[in-house]
Please model this.
Amino acid sequence: MWKKTADNLLMLLLCLCSMFLFQSGKVNAAMTEEAENYEVGEIYEGRIIDQGDKRYFRFTVSEKSHVTLYLTCRKGICKGRIFDELGKEAMRGEDLIFDRNIFAGRSSAQLSRTFPSGTYYLELGNEGKWKWQECRFSFRIQAEKEIKLSKGILRSLDSFEAGQLTVKCEPEENAIGYRIQYSMDEQLQKDVKTMDSSETVNTIKNLKKGQRYYVKVCPYTVYDDGTYVYGESSYVKSAVIDRK
Model:
C-alpha cells in the first residue's frame, strides 16, 4: 500500500515538473520568436495597442556590465522586465517603480542591475484597465562596464596645526573621489563624520585639541545613471590632534 502511494506521488511530481518545464519553454519560445533586435544605447519609441499584449526586444551585453533601463509611458500603463536567454528574470518588473506625472500624462521609471555578458530580452506589457486602451512608450537601455575599485590606502595622518588633521591617501586610477570617515571612537561606530573629496590630500579642521582621532578612507566613483560605487575601506589609522 505504502509503495503504491509513493509511486503515485512520484508520478504526480513528475507531471508537475513536466508542466513547469513545458510552460517555461513556451515563454522562452515566445521571446525568441517575437523579439525585435535592439541596439544598447538607442532610444526606442513604440506602442502596444491592446491591454494584455506584450512586445519583446533582444539585446546583447558583451561583458559584465552595470545595466540601466529607462522606461517612460506617455499614454496608458506599461510594465517592463528583463529576462536572460534561459528565461530567468534578470530585472524584476515589481522592482521598477514609476514616478507618475498626472498633469503631463506620463510616468517614468529607472532601474539598474549588474548583468554578466550574454543575450537578454526586454518584455514590455500593456497594463491598461480596458481592452482597447493603447500604451505608448519609449525606453533606453544603457550598459557600462562594471567598475571595480581597489581597497583604499591611507598613506599618512599628520596634525601640523592645532585642531587640524591632514589626511593623505593613495590615488586610485578609476576613482573620482575619496570618502574620509573619522571619529574619536576606535571602532568608528559612534559619532562618525564623513568628508568626500576629489583630492588625495585633505585637511580636516575644527577637531578637538589633544584628542586621538581614528580615520579610514575609501575610493568611489559613479556610473552615468548616478549610482555610486565604493571600494573597500582602508585599514584604520589614528593620530593625536596638536594642542598648539
Notes: The chain has one helix and 18 strands.
